[in-house]
Protein backbone atom coordinates (compact mmCIF):
# COMPACT_ATOMS: atom_id res chain seq x y z
CA UNK A 1 0.00 0.00 0.00
CA UNK A 2 1.38 3.39 -0.98
CA UNK A 3 1.96 6.13 1.57
CA UNK A 4 -0.56 8.37 -0.22
CA UNK A 5 -3.26 5.70 0.08
CA UNK A 6 -2.29 5.07 3.68
CA UNK A 7 -2.66 8.76 4.54
CA UNK A 8 -6.06 8.98 2.85
CA UNK A 9 -7.27 5.91 4.74
CA UNK A 10 -5.85 7.37 7.95
CA UNK A 11 -7.89 10.56 7.52
CA UNK A 12 -11.02 8.53 6.81
CA UNK A 13 -10.27 6.29 9.77
CA UNK A 14 -9.87 9.27 12.10
CA UNK A 15 -13.51 10.14 11.33
CA UNK A 16 -15.25 6.79 10.93
CA UNK A 17 -13.50 4.57 13.47
CA UNK A 18 -14.22 6.78 16.52
CA UNK A 19 -17.88 6.94 15.47
CA UNK A 20 -18.04 3.16 15.20
CA UNK A 21 -16.24 2.68 18.51
CA UNK A 22 -18.56 5.16 20.25
CA UNK A 23 -21.55 3.29 18.91
CA UNK A 24 -20.17 -0.09 19.97
CA UNK A 25 -19.04 1.09 23.41
CA UNK A 26 -22.27 2.92 24.02
CA UNK A 27 -24.33 -0.07 23.00
CA UNK A 28 -22.29 -2.81 24.68
CA UNK A 29 -20.86 -1.19 27.82
CA UNK A 30 -23.69 1.32 28.31
CA UNK A 31 -26.24 -1.43 28.68
CA UNK A 32 -24.04 -3.14 31.29
CA UNK A 33 -22.77 -0.17 33.28
CA UNK A 34 -25.60 2.36 32.99
CA UNK A 35 -28.57 0.18 32.36
CA UNK A 36 -30.67 1.59 35.23
CA UNK A 37 -29.59 5.15 34.56
CA UNK A 38 -30.42 4.86 30.88
CA UNK A 39 -33.86 3.58 31.81
CA UNK A 40 -34.18 6.46 34.22
CA UNK A 41 -33.16 8.84 31.48
CA UNK A 42 -35.81 7.45 29.21
CA UNK A 43 -38.48 7.70 31.86
CA UNK A 44 -37.44 10.93 33.59
CA UNK A 45 -37.11 12.94 30.42
CA UNK A 46 -40.00 15.44 30.77
CA UNK A 47 -40.91 15.26 27.12
CA UNK A 48 -41.08 11.48 27.04
CA UNK A 49 -42.57 11.33 30.53
CA UNK A 50 -45.67 13.25 29.48
CA UNK A 51 -46.52 10.85 26.69
CA UNK A 52 -45.80 7.73 28.69
CA UNK A 53 -47.26 8.75 32.01
CA UNK A 54 -50.55 10.33 30.90
CA UNK A 55 -52.20 7.06 30.13
CA UNK A 56 -50.86 5.29 33.21
CA UNK A 57 -51.59 8.23 35.51
CA UNK A 58 -55.16 8.66 34.31
CA UNK A 59 -55.78 4.96 34.66
CA UNK A 60 -54.62 4.99 38.27
CA UNK A 61 -56.55 8.19 39.06
CA UNK A 62 -59.74 6.66 37.66
CA UNK A 63 -59.15 3.68 39.86
CA UNK A 64 -58.68 5.95 42.89
CA UNK A 65 -61.83 7.93 42.05
CA UNK A 66 -63.88 4.75 41.82
CA UNK A 67 -62.48 3.47 45.07
CA UNK A 68 -63.18 6.84 46.65
CA UNK A 69 -66.83 6.63 45.62
CA UNK A 70 -67.20 3.00 46.71
CA UNK A 71 -65.02 2.91 49.76
CA UNK A 72 -63.38 6.13 50.96
CA UNK A 73 -61.53 4.43 53.78
CA UNK A 74 -59.66 2.30 51.30
CA UNK A 75 -57.59 5.34 50.31
CA UNK A 76 -56.19 5.43 53.82
CA UNK A 77 -54.85 1.88 53.51
CA UNK A 78 -51.08 2.21 53.02
CA UNK A 79 -50.73 -1.30 51.59
CA UNK A 80 -53.38 -0.50 49.06
CA UNK A 81 -51.50 2.64 47.99
CA UNK A 82 -48.24 0.69 47.75
CA UNK A 83 -49.87 -1.64 45.25
CA UNK A 84 -49.69 1.14 42.65
CA UNK A 85 -45.91 1.58 42.94
CA UNK A 86 -45.11 -1.13 40.43
CA UNK A 87 -47.33 0.39 37.77
CA UNK A 88 -46.05 3.89 38.52
CA UNK A 89 -42.45 2.70 38.40
CA UNK A 90 -42.94 1.53 34.82
CA UNK A 91 -43.31 5.18 33.81
CA UNK A 92 -40.88 6.26 36.53
CA UNK A 93 -43.46 8.07 38.59
CA UNK A 94 -43.83 8.06 42.33
CA UNK A 95 -46.77 8.64 44.69
CA UNK A 96 -47.03 11.03 47.63
CA UNK A 97 -50.03 10.96 49.96
CA UNK A 98 -50.68 13.80 52.38
CA UNK A 99 -53.45 14.00 54.95
CA UNK A 100 -54.22 17.33 56.64
CA UNK A 101 -50.82 18.62 55.48
CA UNK A 102 -48.95 15.62 56.94
CA UNK A 103 -47.18 13.14 54.68
CA UNK A 104 -48.68 9.68 55.11
CA UNK A 105 -46.99 7.76 52.30
CA UNK A 106 -44.14 8.33 49.85
CA UNK A 107 -42.89 6.00 47.11
CA UNK A 108 -39.26 4.99 47.58
CA UNK A 109 -38.10 6.85 44.48
CA UNK A 110 -39.46 10.17 45.77
CA UNK A 111 -38.35 10.06 49.36
CA UNK A 112 -36.41 13.33 49.30
CA UNK A 113 -36.92 16.37 51.48
CA UNK A 114 -36.55 18.64 48.45
CA UNK A 115 -39.71 17.15 46.93
CA UNK A 116 -41.77 16.61 50.06
CA UNK A 117 -41.40 20.19 51.29
CA UNK A 118 -42.24 21.85 47.99
CA UNK A 119 -45.22 20.04 46.61
CA UNK A 120 -48.50 22.03 46.47
CA UNK A 121 -50.86 21.95 49.43
CA UNK A 122 -54.43 20.70 49.48
CA UNK A 123 -56.51 22.68 47.02
CA UNK A 124 -53.63 24.63 45.45
CA UNK A 125 -53.24 22.53 42.32
CA UNK A 126 -56.25 20.35 42.37
CA UNK A 127 -57.00 18.52 39.11
CA UNK A 128 -54.09 20.27 37.35
CA UNK A 129 -51.74 17.83 35.63
CA UNK A 130 -48.04 18.12 34.68
CA UNK A 131 -47.18 21.28 36.52
CA UNK A 132 -43.36 21.66 36.29
CA UNK A 133 -41.77 22.96 39.47
CA UNK A 134 -38.56 24.23 37.77
CA UNK A 135 -37.01 25.74 40.87
CA UNK A 136 -37.08 22.45 42.75
CA UNK A 137 -36.48 20.12 39.83
CA UNK A 138 -39.57 17.94 39.72
CA UNK A 139 -42.84 17.59 37.82
CA UNK A 140 -46.21 17.14 39.46
CA UNK A 141 -47.79 14.70 37.07
CA UNK A 142 -51.20 14.97 38.73
CA UNK A 143 -52.82 16.02 42.03
CA UNK A 144 -56.11 14.74 43.36
CA UNK A 145 -57.72 16.10 46.50
CA UNK A 146 -60.17 13.98 48.49
CA UNK A 147 -62.25 14.70 51.62
CA UNK A 148 -62.62 11.63 53.78
CA UNK A 149 -64.66 12.20 56.91
CA UNK A 150 -63.00 15.21 58.50
CA UNK A 151 -59.68 14.73 56.72
CA UNK A 152 -58.30 16.50 53.69
CA UNK A 153 -56.30 14.04 51.62
CA UNK A 154 -54.15 14.84 48.56
CA UNK A 155 -52.57 12.22 46.28
CA UNK A 156 -49.73 13.34 44.01
CA UNK A 157 -48.07 11.57 41.03
CA UNK A 158 -44.58 13.07 40.70
CA UNK A 159 -41.48 12.65 38.47
CA UNK A 160 -38.05 13.79 39.78
CA UNK A 161 -36.49 15.87 36.95
CA UNK A 162 -33.36 16.91 38.84
CA UNK A 163 -32.22 13.35 39.32
CA UNK A 164 -32.84 12.73 35.67
CA UNK A 165 -30.73 15.71 34.75
CA UNK A 166 -27.90 14.44 36.96
CA UNK A 167 -28.00 11.10 35.22
CA UNK A 168 -28.18 12.80 31.84
CA UNK A 169 -25.04 14.75 32.73
CA UNK A 170 -23.40 11.55 33.87
CA UNK A 171 -24.29 9.90 30.58
CA UNK A 172 -22.94 12.89 28.66
CA UNK A 173 -19.66 12.63 30.56
CA UNK A 174 -19.62 8.90 29.86
CA UNK A 175 -20.24 9.53 26.15
CA UNK A 176 -17.51 12.18 26.05
CA UNK A 177 -15.11 9.78 27.78
CA UNK A 178 -15.92 7.06 25.23
CA UNK A 179 -15.43 9.52 22.36
CA UNK A 180 -12.11 10.69 23.83
CA UNK A 181 -10.99 7.10 24.38
CA UNK A 182 -12.01 6.13 20.84
CA UNK A 183 -10.14 9.08 19.35
CA UNK A 184 -7.04 8.26 21.44
CA UNK A 185 -7.15 4.61 20.40
CA UNK A 186 -7.52 5.51 16.74
CA UNK A 187 -4.87 8.22 16.94
CA UNK A 188 -2.45 5.84 18.67
CA UNK A 189 -3.16 3.07 16.16
CA UNK A 190 -2.76 5.32 13.14
CA UNK A 191 0.32 7.00 14.61
CA UNK A 192 1.86 3.60 15.30
CA UNK A 193 1.00 2.49 11.77
CA UNK A 194 2.56 5.64 10.29
CA UNK A 195 5.57 5.19 12.57
CA UNK A 196 6.08 1.66 11.32
CA UNK A 197 5.41 2.70 7.74
CA UNK A 198 7.47 5.91 7.54
CA UNK A 199 9.43 6.91 10.64
CA UNK A 200 10.92 3.50 11.37
CA UNK A 201 12.18 2.97 7.79
CA UNK A 202 13.64 6.50 7.82
CA UNK A 203 15.50 5.63 11.03
CA UNK A 204 16.78 2.47 9.33
CA UNK A 205 17.97 4.50 6.35
CA UNK A 206 19.57 7.06 8.65
CA UNK A 207 21.43 4.30 10.47
CA UNK A 208 22.41 2.75 7.13
CA UNK A 209 23.81 6.02 5.78
CA UNK A 210 25.69 6.50 9.07
CA UNK A 211 27.23 3.03 8.67
CA UNK A 212 28.25 3.80 5.09
CA UNK A 213 29.72 7.11 6.25
CA UNK A 214 31.85 5.13 8.73
CA UNK A 215 32.96 2.86 5.90
CA UNK A 216 30.85 -0.14 6.91
CA UNK A 217 29.33 -1.46 3.68
CA UNK A 218 28.29 -4.78 5.23
CA UNK A 219 25.41 -3.33 7.29
CA UNK A 220 22.21 -4.83 5.89
CA UNK A 221 18.81 -3.08 6.07
CA UNK A 222 15.87 -5.45 6.43
CA UNK A 223 13.13 -5.60 3.82
CA UNK A 224 10.24 -3.28 4.62
CA UNK A 225 7.28 -3.67 2.26
CA UNK A 226 5.91 -2.74 -1.13
CA UNK A 227 5.25 0.95 -0.52
CA UNK A 228 7.46 3.91 -1.43
CA UNK A 229 9.62 3.43 1.67
CA UNK A 230 10.10 -0.22 0.76
CA UNK A 231 11.21 0.77 -2.74
CA UNK A 232 13.55 3.39 -1.25
CA UNK A 233 15.09 0.81 1.10
CA UNK A 234 15.53 -1.67 -1.76
CA UNK A 235 17.18 1.01 -3.89
CA UNK A 236 19.39 1.92 -0.93
CA UNK A 237 20.34 -1.73 -0.47
CA UNK A 238 21.08 -2.04 -4.17
CA UNK A 239 23.30 1.05 -3.93
CA UNK A 240 25.04 -0.37 -0.85
CA UNK A 241 25.67 -3.70 -2.58
CA UNK A 242 27.01 -1.91 -5.63
CA UNK A 243 29.29 0.20 -3.44
CA UNK A 244 30.48 -2.91 -1.61
CA UNK A 245 31.06 -4.66 -4.91
CA UNK A 246 32.97 -1.62 -6.17
CA UNK A 247 35.02 -1.59 -2.97
CA UNK A 248 35.73 -5.31 -3.22
CA UNK A 249 36.65 -4.94 -6.88
CA UNK A 250 38.89 -2.02 -6.02
CA UNK A 251 40.62 -4.11 -3.36
CA UNK A 252 40.88 -6.97 -5.81
CA UNK A 253 42.19 -4.74 -8.58
CA UNK A 254 44.65 -3.16 -6.20
CA UNK A 255 45.90 -6.59 -5.18
CA UNK A 256 46.01 -7.62 -8.85
CA UNK A 257 47.85 -4.42 -9.70
CA UNK A 258 50.50 -5.13 -7.09
CA UNK A 259 50.71 -8.74 -8.23
CA UNK A 260 50.82 -7.58 -11.85
CA UNK A 261 53.69 -5.22 -11.17
CA UNK A 262 55.53 -7.96 -9.28
CA UNK A 263 54.98 -10.50 -12.07
CA UNK A 264 55.93 -8.08 -14.84
CA UNK A 265 59.03 -7.09 -12.91
CA UNK A 266 59.99 -10.74 -12.49
CA UNK A 267 59.21 -11.79 -16.07
CA UNK A 268 61.04 -8.82 -17.55
CA UNK A 269 63.92 -8.87 -15.14
CA UNK A 270 64.88 -12.46 -15.97
CA UNK A 271 65.45 -11.97 -19.72
CA UNK A 272 67.00 -8.53 -19.16
CA UNK A 273 69.50 -9.99 -16.72
CA UNK A 274 70.23 -12.77 -19.19
CA UNK A 275 70.72 -10.27 -22.04
CA UNK A 276 72.92 -8.12 -19.81
CA UNK A 277 75.03 -11.15 -18.88
CA UNK A 278 75.60 -12.18 -22.47
CA UNK A 279 76.42 -8.60 -23.52
CA UNK A 280 78.93 -8.33 -20.68
CA UNK A 281 80.40 -11.64 -21.84
CA UNK A 282 80.80 -10.21 -25.33
CA UNK A 283 82.35 -7.01 -23.95
CA UNK A 284 84.77 -9.00 -21.80
CA UNK A 285 85.80 -11.06 -24.81
CA UNK A 286 84.37 -14.35 -23.53
CA UNK A 287 82.80 -15.06 -26.95
CA UNK A 288 86.09 -15.36 -28.80
CA UNK A 289 85.07 -17.76 -31.54
CA UNK A 290 82.47 -16.96 -34.23
CA UNK A 291 80.39 -19.96 -33.11
CA UNK A 292 80.25 -18.70 -29.54
CA UNK A 293 79.48 -15.17 -30.70
CA UNK A 294 76.60 -16.50 -32.80
CA UNK A 295 75.33 -18.43 -29.80
CA UNK A 296 75.43 -15.33 -27.58
CA UNK A 297 73.71 -13.18 -30.20
CA UNK A 298 71.00 -15.79 -30.89
CA UNK A 299 70.35 -16.09 -27.17
CA UNK A 300 70.07 -12.32 -26.86
CA UNK A 301 67.70 -12.31 -29.83
CA UNK A 302 65.50 -15.07 -28.30
CA UNK A 303 65.34 -13.25 -24.98
CA UNK A 304 64.44 -10.03 -26.76
CA UNK A 305 61.63 -11.81 -28.64
CA UNK A 306 60.38 -13.25 -25.37
CA UNK A 307 60.27 -9.76 -23.86
CA UNK A 308 58.52 -8.41 -26.94
CA UNK A 309 55.88 -11.18 -26.81
CA UNK A 310 55.36 -10.55 -23.12
CA UNK A 311 54.88 -6.82 -23.67
CA UNK A 312 52.55 -7.40 -26.64
CA UNK A 313 50.40 -9.84 -24.69
CA UNK A 314 50.36 -7.54 -21.67
CA UNK A 315 49.31 -4.65 -23.91
CA UNK A 316 46.56 -6.77 -25.50
CA UNK A 317 45.28 -7.95 -22.13
CA UNK A 318 45.17 -4.39 -20.82
CA UNK A 319 43.15 -3.27 -23.84
CA UNK A 320 40.78 -6.22 -23.44
CA UNK A 321 40.38 -5.45 -19.75
CA UNK A 322 39.49 -1.84 -20.61
CA UNK A 323 37.15 -2.89 -23.46
CA UNK A 324 39.28 -1.00 -25.97
CA UNK A 325 39.81 -3.84 -28.44
CA UNK A 326 37.78 -3.80 -31.66
CA UNK A 327 36.13 -7.07 -32.67
CA UNK A 328 35.22 -8.05 -36.21
CA UNK A 329 32.24 -10.33 -35.56
CA UNK A 330 30.95 -12.28 -38.51
CA UNK A 331 28.94 -15.38 -39.25
CA UNK A 332 31.14 -18.43 -39.86
CA UNK A 333 30.82 -22.19 -40.15
CA UNK A 334 32.60 -23.31 -36.97
CA UNK A 335 32.93 -26.90 -38.23
CA UNK A 336 34.73 -25.83 -41.38
CA UNK A 337 36.87 -23.36 -39.41
CA UNK A 338 37.99 -25.97 -36.84
CA UNK A 339 38.89 -28.41 -39.64
CA UNK A 340 41.11 -25.71 -41.11
CA UNK A 341 42.74 -25.09 -37.69
CA UNK A 342 43.42 -28.82 -37.24
CA UNK A 343 45.07 -29.06 -40.66
CA UNK A 344 47.14 -25.95 -39.95
CA UNK A 345 48.37 -27.23 -36.56
CA UNK A 346 48.96 -30.86 -37.57
CA UNK A 347 52.45 -30.14 -38.94
CA UNK A 348 53.67 -28.54 -35.71
CA UNK A 349 52.14 -31.35 -33.65
CA UNK A 350 53.85 -34.02 -35.76
CA UNK A 351 57.25 -32.39 -35.18
CA UNK A 352 56.85 -33.03 -31.43
CA UNK A 353 55.51 -36.54 -31.96
CA UNK A 354 51.92 -35.61 -31.23
CA UNK A 355 48.66 -35.72 -33.15
CA UNK A 356 45.55 -33.55 -33.24
CA UNK A 357 42.08 -34.91 -34.02
CA UNK A 358 38.71 -33.32 -34.75
CA UNK A 359 35.61 -35.38 -34.08
CA UNK A 360 32.54 -33.87 -35.67
CA UNK A 361 29.69 -35.48 -37.56
CA UNK A 362 27.70 -32.32 -38.33
CA UNK A 363 28.22 -30.80 -41.72
CA UNK A 364 27.63 -27.18 -40.76
CA UNK A 365 27.10 -25.08 -37.60
CA UNK A 366 26.91 -21.33 -38.01
CA UNK A 367 28.18 -19.11 -35.19
CA UNK A 368 29.03 -15.45 -34.61
CA UNK A 369 32.74 -14.94 -33.95
CA UNK A 370 35.88 -12.92 -34.66
CA UNK A 371 38.10 -15.31 -36.67
CA UNK A 372 41.41 -13.74 -35.62
CA UNK A 373 40.53 -13.67 -31.91
CA UNK A 374 39.07 -17.19 -32.07
CA UNK A 375 42.27 -18.47 -33.63
CA UNK A 376 44.27 -16.92 -30.81
CA UNK A 377 42.18 -18.83 -28.24
CA UNK A 378 42.74 -22.16 -29.99
CA UNK A 379 46.48 -21.51 -30.36
CA UNK A 380 46.82 -20.51 -26.68
CA UNK A 381 45.11 -23.70 -25.51
CA UNK A 382 47.01 -26.04 -27.82
CA UNK A 383 50.36 -24.36 -27.07
CA UNK A 384 49.71 -24.95 -23.36
CA UNK A 385 49.01 -28.62 -24.15
CA UNK A 386 52.34 -28.82 -25.96
CA UNK A 387 54.20 -27.08 -23.13
CA UNK A 388 52.80 -29.25 -20.38
CA UNK A 389 52.68 -32.61 -22.18
CA UNK A 390 53.62 -35.76 -20.33
CA UNK A 391 56.28 -38.32 -21.30
CA UNK A 392 53.85 -40.14 -23.58
CA UNK A 393 53.04 -38.87 -27.06
CA UNK A 394 50.67 -35.89 -26.98
CA UNK A 395 47.15 -36.44 -28.28
CA UNK A 396 44.82 -33.44 -28.65
CA UNK A 397 41.15 -33.91 -29.42
CA UNK A 398 38.74 -31.18 -30.53
CA UNK A 399 35.05 -31.91 -29.93
CA UNK A 400 32.03 -29.76 -30.60
CA UNK A 401 28.52 -30.07 -29.18
CA UNK A 402 25.54 -28.15 -30.47
CA UNK A 403 22.80 -26.66 -28.26
CA UNK A 404 19.74 -24.56 -29.00
CA UNK A 405 21.43 -21.14 -28.93
CA UNK A 406 25.15 -21.93 -28.55
CA UNK A 407 27.88 -24.41 -29.28
CA UNK A 408 30.35 -25.86 -26.80
CA UNK A 409 33.86 -26.59 -27.99
CA UNK A 410 36.20 -28.90 -26.06
CA UNK A 411 39.97 -29.07 -26.56
CA UNK A 412 41.23 -32.13 -24.69
CA UNK A 413 44.78 -33.41 -24.18
CA UNK A 414 46.46 -36.32 -22.41
CA UNK A 415 49.12 -34.22 -20.70
CA UNK A 416 50.25 -33.84 -17.09
CA UNK A 417 46.95 -32.41 -15.91
CA UNK A 418 46.31 -29.66 -13.38
CA UNK A 419 45.81 -30.11 -9.64
CA UNK A 420 42.45 -29.28 -8.04
CA UNK A 421 44.14 -26.50 -6.03
CA UNK A 422 45.41 -24.76 -9.17
CA UNK A 423 42.45 -25.42 -11.48
CA UNK A 424 40.22 -22.49 -10.33
CA UNK A 425 43.02 -19.96 -11.00
CA UNK A 426 44.41 -20.95 -14.39
CA UNK A 427 42.44 -18.17 -16.13
CA UNK A 428 43.89 -15.47 -13.85
CA UNK A 429 46.55 -13.20 -15.28
CA UNK A 430 50.15 -14.37 -14.77
CA UNK A 431 49.00 -17.46 -12.90
CA UNK A 432 51.19 -20.51 -13.27
CA UNK A 433 50.94 -23.82 -11.52
CA UNK A 434 54.75 -23.69 -11.45
CA UNK A 435 55.17 -21.43 -8.40
CA UNK A 436 58.85 -20.86 -9.20
CA UNK A 437 57.80 -19.15 -12.44
CA UNK A 438 60.43 -21.12 -14.34
CA UNK A 439 60.73 -19.60 -17.82
CA UNK A 440 62.33 -22.62 -19.37
CA UNK A 441 59.00 -23.67 -20.84
CA UNK A 442 58.30 -20.16 -22.12
CA UNK A 443 55.04 -18.30 -22.09
CA UNK A 444 53.85 -15.11 -20.44
CA UNK A 445 51.20 -16.48 -18.13
CA UNK A 446 48.61 -14.35 -19.93
CA UNK A 447 47.40 -16.77 -22.62
CA UNK A 448 44.38 -18.21 -20.81
CA UNK A 449 43.55 -14.84 -19.21
CA UNK A 450 43.46 -13.30 -22.70
CA UNK A 451 41.34 -16.22 -23.94
CA UNK A 452 38.88 -15.63 -21.11
CA UNK A 453 38.48 -11.93 -21.98
CA UNK A 454 37.99 -12.76 -25.68
CA UNK A 455 35.28 -15.34 -24.86
CA UNK A 456 33.55 -12.83 -22.57
CA UNK A 457 33.45 -10.37 -25.45
CA UNK A 458 31.81 -13.13 -27.55
CA UNK A 459 29.09 -13.48 -24.91
CA UNK A 460 30.26 -16.96 -23.96
CA UNK A 461 32.04 -18.72 -21.12
CA UNK A 462 35.27 -20.69 -20.66
CA UNK A 463 36.18 -23.28 -18.04
CA UNK A 464 38.43 -26.29 -17.48
CA UNK A 465 38.34 -29.86 -16.18
CA UNK A 466 41.48 -31.80 -15.36
CA UNK A 467 42.95 -34.82 -13.60
CA UNK A 468 46.61 -35.22 -12.65
CA UNK A 469 48.42 -37.53 -15.11
CA UNK A 470 45.16 -37.96 -17.05
CA UNK A 471 45.00 -34.75 -19.04
CA UNK A 472 43.09 -31.48 -19.27
CA UNK A 473 39.96 -30.37 -21.11
CA UNK A 474 39.36 -26.69 -21.86
CA UNK A 475 35.76 -25.82 -22.76
CA UNK A 476 34.42 -22.62 -24.23
CA UNK A 477 31.03 -21.63 -25.65
CA UNK A 478 30.07 -19.36 -28.58
CA UNK A 479 26.70 -18.01 -29.63
CA UNK A 480 25.03 -19.57 -32.65
CA UNK A 481 23.92 -17.42 -35.51
Automatic annotation (TrEMBL):
The record's annotation in Pfam families points to: HAMP, HATPase_c, HisKA
Locations listed in the record: Cell membrane
What are the annotated GO cellular component locations? plasma membrane
Q: Name the membrane topology term.
A: Multi-pass membrane protein
Primary enzyme class: transferase
- State the EC number(s): 2.7.13.3
Q: Which keywords annotate this record?
A: ATP-binding, Cell membrane, Kinase, Membrane, Nucleotide-binding, Phosphoprotein, Transferase, Transmembrane, Transmembrane helix, Two-component regulatory system
Q: Which residues form the HAMP domain?
A: 196-248
Q: Which regions span the lipid bilayer?
A: 7-26, 173-195
Query: What superkingdom does the record give?
Result: Bacteria
Reactions catalysed, as given in the entry: ATP + protein L-histidine = ADP + protein N-phospho-L-histidine
- GO molecular function terms here? ATP binding; phosphorelay sensor kinase activity
Question: Is Hydrolase tagged as a keyword?
Answer: no
Name the CDD domains on file: HAMP (cd06225), HATPase (cd00075), HisKA (cd00082)
Residues covered by the Histidine kinase domain: 263-481
User: Can you say what this protein is called?
Assistant: histidine kinase
Which organism encodes this protein? Answer: Anaeromicrobium sediminis
Amino acid sequence: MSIRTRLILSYIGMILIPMILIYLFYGMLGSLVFNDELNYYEKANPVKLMGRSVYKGEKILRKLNIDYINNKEKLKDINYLKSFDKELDEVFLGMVVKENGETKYVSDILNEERILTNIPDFGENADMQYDTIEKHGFVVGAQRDFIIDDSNMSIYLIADVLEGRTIIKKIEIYTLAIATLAVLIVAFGLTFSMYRGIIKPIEKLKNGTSQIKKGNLDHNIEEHGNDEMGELIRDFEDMRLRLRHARDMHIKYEANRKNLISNISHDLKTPIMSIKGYIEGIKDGVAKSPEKMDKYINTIYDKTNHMENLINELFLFSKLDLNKVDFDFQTIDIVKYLKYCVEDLSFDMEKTGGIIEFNQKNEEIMVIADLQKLQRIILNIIQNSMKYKSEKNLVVEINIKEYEDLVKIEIKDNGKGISKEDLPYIFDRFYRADKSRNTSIGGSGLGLAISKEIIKAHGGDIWAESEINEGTSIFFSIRKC
